[in-house]
Every structure is written in structure tokens, then in C-alpha cells.
Model the fold of this input.
Amino acid sequence: KNEVEQSPQNLTAQEGEFITINCSYSVGISALHWLQQHPGGGIVSLFMLSSGKKKHGRLIATINIQEKHSSLHITASHPRDSAVYICAALYGGATNKLIFGTGTLLAVQP
Amino acid sequence: NAGVMQNPRHLVRRRGQEARLRCSPMKGHSHVYWYRQLPEEGLKFMVYLQKENIIDESGMPKERFSAEFPKEGPSILRIQQVVRGDSAAYFCASSASQDNEQFFGPGTRLTVL
Done:
């Protein structure tokens, strides 16, 4: 079982729809990253959060430490949002490494 | 402020050759991480370095792979005697300090023929 689970694995939406991607992790972490990767492309860090909620443009990320769960929301989705979205748990301490979820492939159709 | 730089962006090697991947962290960042993304698979941690020190190499294959982050110059991920299974995208990330946000480079796509 992966330490970081994402759902759904694939998501198709119509332009304008509200999108939610979920991430759960199995042990305590120091922070959680949400990343975006376009096919064959680089990785862009969208958010790093350790509590509460962050907003950037049409993107909102929330985290519930007690429930070990985070969500990424996209409001008013657009075809250019089509990408793979990856959550990654930062375990901190001496190791400081990221453990990645398997990613959610989002396709927003016009 | 330039982001994380990686070069080359694409690298083709024949089996048995050596591959050297370079990563220049963001200005002011002294923590570097290497991650590998195999075809159709997720990202996996390889190694975490701080200037001149390897902090955690638990994700590195035991043989043929090594990493360094010298006092001057970029971090280098070195793969000796490459095999086809080494074909992957290798991403570097950097952060200003431990527990800070990691910023990713564009990756190096290694193809082993």
C-alpha cells in the first residue's frame, strides 16, 4: 500500500466545472505539496501547506492534519488546467524527502 | 532569480556508457533532492544532499549510481554503465532549508539505447 494515496486516478471534466482531487496519507507529516505536471513536461509546485487552506487564483488547497487528508480544488476549470496533479508528503526530520502519490490525470474538455 | 536549472534536458546513452546529470539549485538554496520518474510510474525519491554532504541516499540504487553536491558548482547525479532500465526522467529540486518548499527543475530525460 502506497503511503500517499490519490483519487481519482483519472478525471474528465467540462470547461467551467468545479474539480476536486483528494489525497490521503498514512503517517504524520510536516507538510504536503501539490504539484502540476504537463505530459512530457516539468513539475511546477502549486502549494505547500501544513495546516488550513491556501488559495492561488482558481486553485485552492486544504489540509486536515487530524484526518490525514488534503484536497486540491480548481474552480471554473479550463482546458489549460489539463495536466497530472500530484500530491507529495514531506516527512521532514533528517530525511526531508517527498513521498509522492500516483497522480491524477485531469482532462478538461472545452 | 533563475529557477532550478538542469542540464542536459535530454541525454541519450548506449548501454555501458556513463551518464552525468547536472542540477544548479535556485540562488540561495543549499538543499538539493534528486527524484526519478520511470516511464508510466510515479516519482520516487533518490537522494537528498546539502552542500558537500549526502544526508539521505536511501532511494539510490546500491550500485552504479552516485551523487555529489560540491562546495562550488552544480550537484551531479552520475550513473555508471547505464542499462535500459535507467531510462527515465530525472528531476532535481532545491529548497532554502530543511522543511521549506521544494522547487523543481525541468528534468533530464535519459534514454538508454
Observations:
- The CA atoms of residues 64 and 80 of chain B lie 5 Å apart.
- The first strand of chain B starts at residue 5 and ends at 7.
- The mean pLDDT of chain B is 93.
- The interface with chain A takes residues 31, 33, 35, 42-45, 48, 55-56, 58-59, 91, 93, 95, 98-99, 101-107 of chain B (CB under 8 Å).
